[in-house]
Amino acid sequence: MSIIGLLISFALLMIAMTVHEFAHGWLANKLGDATAKYSGRLTLNPLAHIDPIGTVLLPIILFIATSGQFVFGAAKPVPINYWSLKNPKIDMIWIGLAGPMANFIFAFLLSILSIPLRFLALSPGISFIINNLILINVVLGVFNLIPIPPLDGSRVLMGILPTEMAERFARIEPFGFFIVLALIWLGMFDIIVWPLVRLVLGLLKTPF
After folding, report:
1. What is the C-alpha to C-alpha distance for residues 44 and 86, in angstroms, rounded to an integer?
2. How far does Cα 101 stand from its chain's mean position?
3. Whole-angstrom Cα distance, residue 138 to residue 158?
4. What is the pLDDT of residues 143-176, one digit of tens each?
5. Apex 145 CA angle, 159 and 179, nearest 5
6. Alpha-carbon distance 11 to 68, whole Å?
7. Cβ contacts of 108 within 8 Å, gap of 6 or more
8. How many angstroms separate the Cα of 59 from the Cα of each of 11, 32, 35?
C-alpha cells in the first residue's frame, strides 16, 4: 500500500468522474435544463464535483480494504430538473447515458493515444497513468449502467418503463446506496462488472 499510489489513483478517479458529471450537465443544458449551469456544475473543474463521502471517504476505505489494489468512488450528482426538459421521459434516458458514454469515449481516445506512445521510450509511470485512466473510465462507465438508483442505469430504465412503474421503481432510491453496497459485498463486481469491463478493455485492446 502506498500513499503515492492512493494519490495517483484518486487524481485519475477525479478526472474520470469530472468528465462523467460534466457530460450529464452538458447534455441536460442542451436539452433545455440549465440547472447544472446555474449551479456551477457545468465545468471541468474537479473541485465542483467533490462529494465528501463518495469522492473522499469511499475511495480511501476501498484503497485500504483492498491493500491498494482498487479505488472507486462517486462524485456529487449533477442537479437535473427533468420538468425543464423538452421531453422529460425520453431526455432522461439520454442524460442518464451521457455520463457512462463520456467515460467510454474518453477511454477510447486514450487508447488511440496510447498506440503511438508504445513506440516511444516513455517512462513506466506514464504508461501506468494512461492505462489506469483507461481502466478507471471503463469501470466507472460500466458500473454506472447498473439499473439501481441513484446509478445512471436506473435513469435509463425509468425512462423506458411506463410512468406508473417508473414512479414505483424510483421509490427505492433512498435505499439504493445500501443495495449497491450489499451487491458489491455479494460479489457483484466479480459476477457482473469485471466481465463487462474486460469485454470493453478487450475491444480497446488495452493491456489488462
Report:
1. 25
2. 9
3. 23
4. 999 999 889 999 999 999 998 999 899 999 888 8
5. 95
6. 14
7. 204
8. 11, 34, 28
Cell of 121: 521510450
Whether 68 has a pLDDT exceeding 90, the answer reads: no
Question: Would you give the DSSP letter of residue 51?
Answer: -
**Whether 68 contacts 11, CB under 8 Å:** no
Q: Report residue 172 as a C-alpha cell.
A: 427505492
**CA 86 to CA 158: how far, in whole Å?**
17
Q: Is the pTM of this model over 0.85?
A: yes
CA distance linking residue 184 with residue 182, whole number of Å: 5
Residue 39: half-sphere exposure toward Cβ, Cα within 13 Å: 19
Range of the domain at 148: 3-204
Active site residues per annotation: 21
Q: Distance from first CA to last CA of the chain, Å, rounded?
A: 20
Q: How many domains does the chain have?
A: 1
Task: Kindly tell me the sign of the dihedral angle through the C-alpha atoms of 161, 166, 172, 173.
Answer: positive
C-alpha cell at 204: 480497446
- Say which amino acid occupies 177: F
